């Protein structure tokens, strides 16, 4: 059972048709990619039955999806996206971002606070929460900012946001670092009483002024101002020590360096309560991409070197880095198709992440689909204490699921994506597997690889 003792469920679940009207029969899926094909009957928002052939047991009105030989996983959970609403609806909205999430296999996402206005008060968080519920393609959880206006000076009212209808349970100034150690200490002490998560964007700003690329040989040769590893690692180290001495729940956003991995390995060895995520792009892309000066490759933290990607991959396998988060960051073409040092940092990620992780760790690695379920669904749901997601695939469990077609290769093209933006760093890259189906509380949100239309 979900332990809700310290975490009230995040508001009422979205309304969905009840009973047989809503029944769905998944035919012939491989649960976690294992064993013999099974039928899975979904009804009333839960997994009603699992068996070899449930054709005769499904209600006559049930939607039957022939998914023979496809892999059934728990619905994916992304702790770190930017859906840009309110303020930049020209680049993404709750609705378009939810569609991108559904298309990528996600059933829950946490959308960061660096909106305009900043998500630093309950009314803004509630508006995002309600828009997510109305769209009903994915559970959208607003992240509150740690400091008012992301200015790093004064704490926001965590309690007011936690008590709102949005039931905010994660706070972050992501995009900016809470670099003032006194403010971070106060945030930890304040957060402890409410058992909320603090997600830190680790960047010592005095070491990254004007920086646009990883500080290394490539940036030096191309004449780009460098963003050194130590700017990230010094904050990771500081916050690990803060977590040791002051407790709380601290989460490290988008780990990008080999040194961060070493620090996390040390911290976890000391039983310091700290969790961490890595993005797909920091697992596979390096600063060698900068040769073209294409703004699509500008991201924060920057693409590093091969040894960083290798260390991060191993850390994810070892559990030193807990989970994958996309840091899906839509930007307009004008903000990306310009001089490299003028381009806004950030990349799309929701619609390509499952294929990239499967390619890297299952198809070309020695991990199995249980590993993908762990790092893309179970761990992020545990870290965020999110009820109903990242649960075992078993009778009686909530029907938050995704299905991966391992025989459907495709090419990543921004124009085919549900996101409103086109800053896709994998443009033209072959993707070996595709999410065919996503299901949110028994309701199909993605069918044949396409998000269902909403009003
Ligand atoms: Zn960030």
- Give the averaged pLDDT, no decimals: 94
Helix content: 25-40%
Number of helices: 12
CATH architecture of the largest domain: Alpha-Beta Barrel
C-alpha end-to-end distance: 35 Å
The total tally of domains equals 2
CATH topology of the largest domain: the name is TIM Barrel
Small molecules held by this entry? zinc ion
- Class of the largest domain in CATH? Alpha Beta
Biggest β-sheet, characterized?
9 strands, mixed
Percentage beta strand: 15-25%
Quaternary state of this entry equals single chain
Binding site for substrate: 82-84, 114, 300, 331, 345-346
Organism: Corynebacterium urealyticum (strain ATCC 43042 / DSM 7109)
Binding site for Zn(2+) 1: 80, 82, 174, 327
Cofactor: Zn(2+)
Overview of the structural elements:
This protein has 455 residues and is an alpha/beta fold. The chain has 2 domains: 105 residues, Urease, subunit C, domain 1; 310 residues, Metal-dependent hydrolases (TIM Barrel, Alpha-Beta Barrel). 28% of the residues lie in helices and 20% in strands. Strands 1, 2, 3, 4, 5, 16, 19, 20 and 21 form a 9-stranded mixed beta sheet that branches. Helix 5 links the parallel strand 11 and strand 12. The two termini are 35 Å apart. The N terminus is likely disordered. Zinc ion binds next to loops. It comes from Corynebacterium urealyticum (strain ATCC 43042 / DSM 7109). Its cofactor is Zn(2+). Catalyzes the reversible cyclization of carbamoyl aspartate to dihydroorotate. Belongs to the metallo-dependent hydrolases superfamily. DHOase family. Class I DHOase subfamily. InterPro entries: DHOase, DHOase/Allantoinase_Hydrolase, DHOase_cat, Dihydroorotase_CS, Metal-dep_hydrolase_composite, Metal_Hydrolase.
């Amino acid at each position: 059972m979900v332990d809700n003792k310290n975490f009230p469920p995040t508001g009422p679940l979205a309304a969905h048709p009840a009973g047989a009207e809503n029944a769905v029969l998944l035919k012939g899926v491989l649960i976690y990619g294992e064993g013999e094909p099974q039928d899975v009957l979904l009804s009333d928002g839960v997994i009603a039955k699992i068996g070899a052939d449930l054709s005769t047991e499904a209600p006559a009105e049930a939607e039957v999806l022939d998914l023979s030989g496809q892999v059934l996983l728990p619905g994916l959970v992304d702790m770190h996206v930017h859906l840009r609403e309110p303020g930049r609806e020209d680049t993404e909205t709750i609705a378009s971002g939810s569609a991108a999430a559904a298309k990528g296999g996600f059933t829950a996402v946490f959308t960061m606070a660096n909106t305009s206005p900043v998500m630093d008060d309950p009314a803004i968080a509630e508006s995002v929460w309600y828009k997510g519920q109305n769209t009903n393609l994915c559970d959208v959880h607003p992240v509150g900012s740690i400091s008012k206006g992301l200015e790093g000076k004064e704490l926001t009212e965590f309690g007011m946001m936690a008590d709102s209808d949005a039931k905010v349970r994660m706070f972050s100034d992501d995009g900016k670092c809470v670099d003032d150690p006194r403010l971070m200490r106060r945030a930890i002490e304040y957060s402890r009483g409410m058992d909320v998560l603090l997600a830190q964007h680790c960047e010592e700003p005095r070491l990254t002024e004007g920086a646009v690329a990883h500080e290394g040989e490539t940036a030096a040769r191309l004449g780009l101002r460098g963003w050194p590893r130590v700017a990230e690692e010094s904050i990771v180290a500081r916050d690990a020590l803060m977590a040791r001495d002051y407790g709380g729940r601290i989460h490290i956003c988008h780990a990008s360096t080999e040194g961060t991995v070493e620090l996390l390995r040390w911290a976890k060895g000391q039983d310091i309560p700290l969790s961490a995520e890595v993005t797909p792009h920091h697992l596979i892309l390096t600063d060698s991409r900068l040769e073209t000066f294409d703004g699509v490759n500008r991201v924060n933290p920057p693409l590093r070197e091969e040894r960083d990607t290798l260390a991060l991959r191993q850390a994810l396998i070892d559990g030193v880095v807990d989970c994958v988060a996309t840091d899906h960051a839509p930007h307009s073409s004008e903000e990306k198709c310009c001089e490299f040092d003028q381009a806004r940092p950030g990349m799309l990620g929701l619609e390509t992440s499952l294929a990239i992780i499967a390619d890297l760790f299952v198809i070309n690695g020695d991990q199995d689909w249980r590993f993908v379920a762990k790092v893309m669904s179970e761990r992020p749901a545990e870290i965020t204490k999110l009820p109903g997601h990242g649960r075992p695939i078993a009778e009686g469990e909530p029907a938050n699921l995704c299905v991966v077609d391992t025989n459907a290769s495709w090419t990543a093209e921004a124009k085919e994506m549900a996101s409103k933006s086109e800053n896709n760093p994998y443009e033209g890259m072959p993707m070996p597997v595709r999410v065919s189906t996503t299901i949110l509380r028994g309701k199909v949100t993605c069918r044949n690889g396409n998000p269902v239309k909403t009003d």
